[in-house]
């Protein structure tokens, strides 16, 4: 976790666990307007003139469709087609960023580095460099420095902050930036928004990685079953419904939903990680 950000949340009475989950005292389980820390998510940066073409050859979605105003769901697989991790890909200041569960970040960075060879691209784990927070509720848009487009995954930039719209009926946004700028945003928002419990923050992880209708993880996936809403119920229960094919849910501290799909000779697997038991 960023040291300046850690000092700030500690000054607000929060405790930080070994996995970088932040818990605020007397946090609201479901505030009408919620502030959440997202330090449990990892962040990998790719920079250099070959960053986009390099990543295009390593992941399942079409990186050429990415632009500064829209993020993208994506994944990386083993040579046998088994998904190793899925992530949200976005652009910031000309660099590409992969946001994924922190426990997967080192593995994904190491694997990508294996294939850089002569490509002009530099990889760095910047999980502790940039701070990530979320804000959700009807008040959220009015508190943002800038508001992304209406489509889920839309991005806007209010330097030094980047704002991403996450899917869901309740407006929810993520802000990414240096600690001082995020701290200022948090302090200004605290009058209307309240820190939420840990499970609420994990809900952002669920929402950002679960393909909603109209989103997919595979290039040219075309025909596919529609994936429907994911929600945290009572702060602990992860629910999912898939229209055509069965999903398999493995309960535990992290709930995983695997959705295999064979299309045009390419094996795709959707994985969602989130939901904390007894938060």
Word description of this protein:
The chain has 279 residues and is α+β, with helices and mostly antiparallel strands. A six-stranded mixed beta sheet has the order 10-11-12-9-3-13, sandwiched between helices. It has a five-stranded antiparallel beta sheet with strand order 5-6-7-4-8, with helices on both faces. Strand 16 and strand 17 form a beta hairpin. It is globular. 42% of the residues are buried.
The geometry reads as globular
The largest sheet is: 6 strands, mixed
Strand order of the largest sheet: 10-11-12-9-3-13
Helix content: 10-25%
Mean pLDDT: 74
Category from helices, strands and their pairing:
alpha+beta
Short description:
By secondary structure, this protein is of the alpha+beta class.
Keywords:
single chain, about 280 residues, alpha+beta, 6-stranded mixed beta sheet, 5-stranded antiparallel beta sheet, 18 strands, about 20% helix, about 35% strand, disordered C terminus
Q: Topology of this protein?
A:
Elements: H1 3-11, E1 15-16, E2 22-23, E3 33-37, E4 41-47, H2 51-56, E5 72-77, E6 83-92, E7 95-101, H3 102-114, E8 122-125, E9 131-137, H4 140-143, E10 155-158, E11 161-166, E12 172-177, H5 179-189, E13 194-195, H6 198-209, E14 231-233, E15 237-239, E16 248-250, E17 255-263, E18 266-274
Parallel strand pairs: 3-13
Antiparallel strand pairs: 1-2, 3-9, 4-7, 4-8, 5-6, 6-7, 9-12, 10-11, 11-12, 14-15, 16-17, 17-18
């Amino acid at each position: 976790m960023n040291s300046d950000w850690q000092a700030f949340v500690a000054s607000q009475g929060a405790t930080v666990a070994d996995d970088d989950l932040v818990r605020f005292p007397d946090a609201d389980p479901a505030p009408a307007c919620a502030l959440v820390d997202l330090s449990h998510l990892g962040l990998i940066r790719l920079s250099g003139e070959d960053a986009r073409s390099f990543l295009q050859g390593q992941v399942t979605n079409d990186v050429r469709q990415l632009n500064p105003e829209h993020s993208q769901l994506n994944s990386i697989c083993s040579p046998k087609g088994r998904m190793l991790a899925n992530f949200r890909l976005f652009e910031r200041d000309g660099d590409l960023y992969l946001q994924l569960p922190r426990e997967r970040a080192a593995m994904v960075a190491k694997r990508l580095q294996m294939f850089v060879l002569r490509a002009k691209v530099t990889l760095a784990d910047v999980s502790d460099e940039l701070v990530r927070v979320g804000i959700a509720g009807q008040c959220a848009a009015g508190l943002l420095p800038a508001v992304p487009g209406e489509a889920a995954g839309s991005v806007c930039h209010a330097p030094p902050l980047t704002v991403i719209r996450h899917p869901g009926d309740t407006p929810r946004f993520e802000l990414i930036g240096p600690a001082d700028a995020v701290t200022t945003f948090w302090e200004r928002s605290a009058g209307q928004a309240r820190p939420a419990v840990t499970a609420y923050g994990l809900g952002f992880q669920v929402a950002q990685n679960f393909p909603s209708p109209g989103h997919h993880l595979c290039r040219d996936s075309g025909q596919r079953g529609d994936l429907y809403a994911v929600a945290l119920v009572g702060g602990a229960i992860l629910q999912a419904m898939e229209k055509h094919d069965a999903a398999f849910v493995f309960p535990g501290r992290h709930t995983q939903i695997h959705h295999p799909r064979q299309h045009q000779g390419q094996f795709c697997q959707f994985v969602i990680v989130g939901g904390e038991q007894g938060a």
